[in-house]
Design goal:
A hairpin with a 6-residue loop joins β2 and β3. The radius of gyration is 34 Å and the shape is rod-shaped. α3 packs across α6. With 289 residues, the protein is α+β, with helices and mostly antiparallel strands. It is built from 8 helices and 4 strands; from the N terminus they run αβααααββαααβ.
Length: 289
């Protein structure tokens, strides 16, 4: 059996939280931001926009995803990317340590626990500059999310493909083994045909027993030989039957697994081509909100 990574079925928020955690400046509290100051709005959807039906995510998964996106806003990769934009760089050009300064002043908060709108604000800047930097941070957050999300989905797809290929290989081997065992027993490979053939052998056995009892001489010996051959085939069928039944059950489980993995690939493809769960709703302006 090939050695491969376990299926990457962990949710994207976990990957994003792990990726951002090593760089978070969020350990220090951000400065208070006026509630009516410039704000950039991000949509953080509670579930995928894939058109395929599926179970609703658990509340804990939704909460973890929301918290991961809020933390991502203040991660070092996002702040670095934001400060590479001309507007943000100009707004903070007087700061000796712009990333640390920004990390202490950017906030990402939801209006309430059930809200899907993440509000990104920056404190201690004039409204115009605060709006420009908030937009830069929000845009960098989207870029970082999309990069991690795409990578995680590609990894999941590759792992599911590998798992399906492994199942298909096992399926081919099991089917070949069943066919070979049945052929050696002189019986069909499919379960229904196998049972019908065994039933026919028992009928033939019964007929030969009657024929043997009423036969004499050469005919009796021919009937006895034929009966011995049929009974040997019946014994072989009875010995191989349980093993073949177990192998067929395993084949059924493998077929089901192959179908499940195929459906998972379809779902991943739809998700990769659907609207992302994190989107820019509205850029910040210098106007109070």
């Amino acid at each position: 059996m090939s050695r491969r990574r376990p299926l990457a079925l962990a949710a994207v928020p976990v990957a994003l939280a792990s990726a951002g955690a090593a760089y978070l400046y969020a350990l220090q509290p951000a400065a208070a931001v006026p509630a009516d100051g410039p704000v950039a709005l991000l949509l953080v959807a509670s579930r995928s926009f894939s058109p395929l039906p599926g179970p609703a995510p658990f509340p804990a998964e939704v909460d973890a995803f929301r918290r991961a996106q809020a933390a991502l806003v203040r991660s070092e990769p996002v702040l670095n990317a934001a400060l590479r934009t001309p507007a943000a760089r100009d707004a903070l050009k007087g700061q000796a340590a712009p990333i640390a300064w920004l990390a202490a002043r950017v906030t990402a908060e939801y209006a309430d626990p059930a809200s899907e709108v993440l509000r990104v604000r920056v404190a201690d800047l004039p409204p115009r500059e605060a709006a420009a930097v908030a937009n830069a941070v929000a845009a960098a957050t989207l870029d970082e999310y999309h990069a991690h999300n795409r990578a995680a989905q590609s990894l999941r797809r590759k792992d599911v493909e590998n798992a399906r290929d492994e199942v298909r290989q096992k399926l081919g081997k099991r089917r070949a083994a069943v066919a070979e065992t049945a052929r050696a027993a002189g019986l069909p490979a499919t379960a229904d045909e196998y049972r019908a053939a065994v039933a026919a052998l028992y009928q033939e056995q019964a007929g030969l027993r009657v024929a043997t009892a009423g036969a004499e001489g050469v005919r009796a010996r021919a009937c006895e030989n034929a009966l011995a051959d049929v009974e040997a085939r019946i014994r072989r069928a009875e010995e191989e039957g349980p093993r073949l039944d177990a192998a067929r059950a395993e084949i059924g489980a493998l077929v089901a697994a192959e179908a499940t993995l195929g459906a998972e690939l379809v779902r991943i493809d739809f998700e990769m081509n659907s609207r992302p769960r994190v989107q820019f709703l509205k850029p910040s302006t210098a106007e109070p909100r």
